[in-house]
């Protein structure tokens, strides 16, 4: 009897489950009846429910495609006002109108593409990806894959972006836009040689080669081929100087090579062409010399209060206005703009320090077998720590030794390790096999060699490579890892006032997050200090600025480098970080006290550092 009661109970449970979630055939029959009655919204919802559960169901896919085709025809007229709003820059209004249209019927491909484009302009790529996925269920087109790849790129999902853009180029091998996006993706992944190949392919098919020439210039800068980069960017101008992106990149290159006045001229020229370009305003604010009546300040104040400005652009303008008012010594006004810019940037990135805490705890628990040394042609030096802790100055000191190539901040290491982490997580493993470490060794050595040219030593100064120190020790026994230490108030202030491009360094836009993240990094350094392999090379930024010659000599000895060129040798190489101006001048002490101008406003940072055990003159 007990078995019988259990059987009846199970049948009732299955019956209730069927009532809650009808089989696919019942949903499909209902959808088809609704289609015949003209209720496209309800029919599309049912078809979508089936596809969510059974993505390969042909009957649902066919029904949804038929509805989408009908919607395409109906939306051709309905979408015109929304498209006009988008083209005029009124992105929020365009999205609101598109969403109202979507509530009247199933989402057609043009409607979903428009929504995705609006969401991307509003710095909401994750939501845009969902729109592209829905559209791809009814249409496998290069345009959709290119759009999805671009949104994934903006969201920092580089591996998925590369796959989507690879599909786009396979479907439309003569589409320059798909190849351009693939080139950008490869550049962000630390594959500049492959990026150059992709942009060259784009240029073969491009009717207007300006954008391709600008991107080619960016890639050549990453490869250290600055003379070729400048020629490519000037080619993009075609002699008439009417291309704002090219002028912006030329200004960046001018600043990187120490030509501050030339950078200002190029930025000014770009803004005459695109006066609303927030990124150019921010770039100019880092090199301009302001007076209280500077026209650019008035322009930025007008733009930042505009109703249709995207949050990302508004954040950049607030950072630019901080730079302007800070220079004019209007500290209260400057800090107000800085707080607004940071708040917008934090909201845009959705940063959660808890995720980084989990990541670093997991990284510390991994077991990584050492790879054999072999006979490496190239020896890497990794300069690590926190961003804004002195990595550029340290790279500059080490680069004075002969045979050393300062490559800047390379994405090579993180790009190589990311798929390994995904594999470990998926398989619930906490160790790597020797074969995996050997494969990582090959990938890292090849990736670094792309940037090194004929040099014997390469410096990668990506600060947060400290997170991957366990992998670097295991895979590259020939490497040296330098760790920077700097007063945490000075680091915190330098982070908070800096706008970082891309989606990284999300902790930098909140004073509490900055303090907590510094604590996590200190914990990682202590863990790797006690781990196997060659010891970390510790460098105090205060020592480097107070006694530069003696400290530099000890550092070079620890890194097995030869004696450098004469001390007064000028810096001629491009420096693409925010520290370029400081590195080109004499090394001086006292930079760690700059935060004291804003000491009262920064009291939350000081309090948070005390809570996390931050070491500082608090």
TrEMBL record:
Gene3D superfamilies: P-loop containing nucleotide triphosphate hydrolases (3.40.50.300), Tetratricopeptide repeat domain (1.25.40.10). SUPFAM superfamilies: P-loop containing nucleoside triphosphate hydrolases, TPR-like. Pfam families: Sulfotransfer_3, TPR_16, TPR_19. InterPro entries: CellSynth/LPSAsmb/PSIAsmb, P-loop_NTPase, TPR-like_helical_dom_sf, TPR_rpt. Residues 1-15 have a biased composition (Basic residues). TPR repeats lie at residues 142-175, 244-277. Keywords: Repeat, TPR repeat. This is Tetratricopeptide repeat protein. It comes from Sulfitobacter sabulilitoris.
């Amino acid at each position: 009897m007990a078995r019988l009661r259990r059987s009846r109970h199970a049948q009732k449970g299955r019956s209730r489950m069927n009532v809650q979630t009808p089989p696919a055939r019942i949903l499909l029959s209902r959808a088809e009846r609704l289609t015949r009655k003209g209720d496209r919204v309800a029919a599309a919802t049912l078809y979508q429910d089936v596809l969510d559960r059974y993505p390969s169901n042909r009957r649902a896919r066919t029904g949804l495609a038929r509805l989408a085709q009908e919607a395409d025809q109906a939306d051709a007229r309905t979408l015109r006002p929304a498209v006009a709003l988008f083209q005029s820059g009124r992105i929020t209004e365009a999205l609101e109108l598109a969403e109202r249209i979507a509530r009247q019927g199933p989402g057609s491909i043009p409607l979903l593409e428009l929504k995705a484009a609006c969401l991307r302009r509003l710095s909401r790529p994750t939501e845009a990806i969902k729109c592209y996925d829905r559209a791809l269920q009814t249409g496998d087109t290069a345009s959709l894959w290119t759009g999805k790849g671009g949104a994934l790129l903006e969201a920092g999902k580089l591996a998925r972006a590369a796959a989507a853009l690879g599909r786009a180029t396979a479907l439309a091998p003569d589409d320059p836009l798909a190849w351009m996006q693939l080139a950008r993706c490869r550049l962000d992944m630390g594959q500049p040689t492959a990026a150059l190949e992709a942009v060259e392919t784009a240029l073969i098919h491009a009717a207007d080669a300006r954008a391709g020439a600008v991107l080619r210039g960016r890639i050549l800068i990453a490869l250290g081929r600055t003379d070729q980069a400048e020629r490519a960017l000037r080619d993009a101008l075609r002699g008439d100087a009417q291309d704002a992106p090219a002028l912006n990149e030329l200004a960046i290159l001018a600043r990187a090579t120490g030509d501050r006045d030339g950078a200002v001229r190029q930025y000014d020229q770009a803004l005459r062409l695109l006066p609303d370009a927030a990124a150019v305003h921010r770039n100019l604010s880092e090199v301009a010399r302001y007076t209280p009546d500077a026209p650019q300040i008035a322009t930025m104040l007008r733009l930042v209060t505009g109703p249709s400005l995207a949050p990302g652009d508004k954040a950049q303008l607030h950072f630019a206005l901080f730079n302007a008012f800070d220079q004019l010594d209007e500290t209260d006004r400057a800090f107000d703009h800085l707080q607004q810019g940071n708040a917008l940037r934090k909201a845009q990135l959705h940063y959660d320090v808890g995720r980084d805490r989990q990541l670093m705890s997991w990284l510390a628990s991994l077991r990584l077998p050492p790879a054999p040394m072999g006979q490496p042609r190239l020896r890497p030096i990794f300069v690590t720590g926190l961003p804004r802790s002195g990595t550029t100055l340290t790279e500059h000191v080490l680069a004075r030794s002969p045979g050393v190539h300062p490559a800047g901040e390379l994405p090579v290491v993180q790009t190589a390790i990311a798929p390994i982490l995904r594999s470990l997580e998926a398989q619930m493993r906490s160790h790597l096999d020797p074969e995996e470490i050997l494969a990582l060794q090959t990938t890292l050595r090849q990736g670094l060699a792309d940037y090194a040219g004929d040099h014997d030593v390469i410096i990668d100064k990506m600060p947060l490579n400290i997170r991957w120190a366990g992998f670097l020790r295991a895979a590259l026994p020939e490497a040296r890892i330098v760790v920077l230490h700097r007063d945490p108030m000075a680091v915190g202030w330098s982070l908070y006032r800096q706008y970082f491009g891309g989606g990284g360094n999300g902790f930098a836009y909140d004073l509490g997050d900055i303090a907590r993240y510094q604590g996590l990094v200190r914990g990682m350094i202590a863990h790797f200090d006690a781990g196997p392999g060659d010891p970390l090379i510790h460098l105090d930024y205060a020592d480097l600025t107070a006694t530069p010659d003696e400290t530099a000599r000890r550092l070079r000895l620890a890194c097995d480098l030869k004696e450098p060129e004469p001390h007064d040798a000028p810096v001629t190489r491009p420096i693409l970080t925010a520290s370029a101006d400081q590195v080109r001048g004499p090394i001086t002490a006292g930079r760690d006290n700059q935060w004291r101008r804003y000491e009262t406003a920064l009291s939350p940072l000081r309090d948070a550092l005390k809570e996390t055990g931050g070491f500082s003159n608090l």
